[in-house]
Amino acid sequence: MNTNESEISRRSFLKYSTAAATAFTVIPASAIGGDSAVPPSERMTFALIGCGTQGIRELPGMIGSKSIQFVAVCDPNKESYDYVDWSKDGLRHDVANMLKKSDWRANAPGIPGGREVVKEIIELYYGSQKDSGKYQGCKAYADFRELLDKDIDAVKIMTPDHLHATIAIAALKKGKRVMMHKPLANRVYEGRLVVDTAKKTNLPTHFLPANVGPGITQALKAVRDGRIGRLKEIHNWSNRPVWPQYTKLPTDTPPVPAGFDWDLWLGPSLPRPYHPHYTHCVFRGWYEFGGGAIADMGHYSLWRVFQELNLDPPIMVESNPSHVCELDNLVSKKIHNDYSFPLACTVRFRFAGKGDRPELDLFWYDGGIKPTTPEDLIKNNKELSAEGIMFVGTDGIIMGEFTGENLRIISQGKIQPLEKPSNASSLPAGFVGWEEAFRNKGKSYGDFTLALSITDAFNLAAVSLRLGGKRLMWDAQDMKVTNPPDANKYLRREYRKGWELTA
Q1: What is the mean pLDDT of the segment spanning 432-441?
Q2: Residue 102 needs a FRET pair 20 to 30 A away by CA distance; which of 76, 199, 247, 440 works?
């Protein structure tokens, strides 16, 4: 990755990660009674599960809330300097600025992470605050199961994807409020279990990438108003993956780093030798541990699309994965496997008609692939942005940046900015911000029970890719692929003994 590409990717990433972090502050203090109404002794106690770079990056957006207090952290890794990030010192500088300690970890040999690192950050922050009350310090745990036995109100889950469902279900069953990053799960079966458990426990939950920005809402209002005729297709493209991708399983067996519990990191996954190519950041590229580029970024851009169009799970999913080749005795052969995501792909989702809306196709692109450039852009010497979204109707197109920024409407050969509606709401009716939901046991705009359709869709995309791009016909009611039947084996994982998931 060259310097320019790296910086663009970093800016893009920070835009979306910052959006997730700042979602913590969308509710004004007055909505929850103001600072004086929540003295330290009455604040919700939170635990952070997952102490990697993203867990650290989002701390500044949450730790300043006067309605909560972090009292525990959990991660299989005690402390190390081998994490992967966008720059060598960017995250360290962010933490140093938050703590107002310019020398924090100034001589670190690499990018820091792990439970002891985050424990230190939290204790330093609260120790510098006059209104922290009689703060008792932060406890650090390696095993989330031990943590969940403690008297804690809520957890924030920031682990690799394969642990999301296991931890979320366990936390809900222990009576904890749960906040979690994407995806909800990286298997269809596990996603369904998370949603079902959230319904049964009726506890407040919040899915962090749930987008409350006005862009997508603005675009879809224009669609409903008939500005582009009947909606036919939606196209969404991302520059992910920006992490290393591996086409083959590692064969060397380096030792497990000191302070790192590999067994706990594997969790429900079947045993395999430790390798750094599975862990920090790069886990997203493996079917076993991640959800690929679509799970990483698609929730930010498409959450509101699924909600506002009231999309049920797709009836059809098909993909077109890229491939790589290698020489075998001077003969070129394609490498196909069912353990790592492709370098790039397109995915087509088809949704059944509903009410006045006919069938709808949604297209996802990643790895540098984009949709066909509209002719009106070509005529005006304009190109598609690096990441974007496009709504195609019978009479025009609405397009913008990845989550609906800088919207333009193309109609009758003219390209014009899409005017903003004066009364656009950022929250769906009946739902509130996460703080209000967690304190008053209500429903946040990112409630887990809203995530079934998008979770089904993205996990089915992974199944299609694992099968080399086969078309899947999905029976959501019976939770099975009707064609090809061999796809059903990928709807759930093979669990390690003692880690099985049940409703």
Answers
A1: 93
A2: 76
pLDDT computed for residue 24 by the predictor: 37
Give the single-character DSSP code of 111: B
Spatial contact of 237 and 387, defined as CB atoms under 8 Å apart:
yes
- Provide the residue range defining the domain that includes 143: 20-211+428-447
Last residue of a domain, one of 371, 398, 417: 417
Structure tokens at 83: 């994490």
Q: What is the DSSP string of 388-429?
A: EEEEEESS-EEEESTTS-S-EEEETTEEEEPPPPTT--SS-T
- Token pair 């590999």 is found at 262
Pair (189, 45) in one structural domain: yes
> pLDDT digits over 225-271, tens only?
999 999 999 999 999 999 999 999 999 999 999 999 999 999 999 99
| Helix orientation angle between 292-308 and 452-466, rounded to the nearest 10 degrees | 150
The share of the chain scoring above pLDDT 90, in percent, equals: 81
Q: Is residue 457 within 8 Å of 347, Cβ to Cβ?
A: no
Q: 30 pLDDT exceeds 90?
A: no
Query: What domain count does the chain have?
Result: 2
Cα–Cα distance measured from residue 412 to residue 140, given in angstroms and rounded to the nearest whole number: 61
Q: Does residue 360 sit in the same domain as residue 441?
A: no
What is the mean predicted confidence (pLDDT) over 73-83? 97
User: Token pair for residue 415?
Assistant: 């390209």
Six-digit token pair at 104?
């924090």
222 and 207 in a single domain? The answer is: no
CA–CA dist 126, 72 (Å, integer):
13
Q: What is the CA radius of gyration of the chain?
A: 23
Q: Residue 437 and residue 416: Cα distance in Å, rounded? A: 39
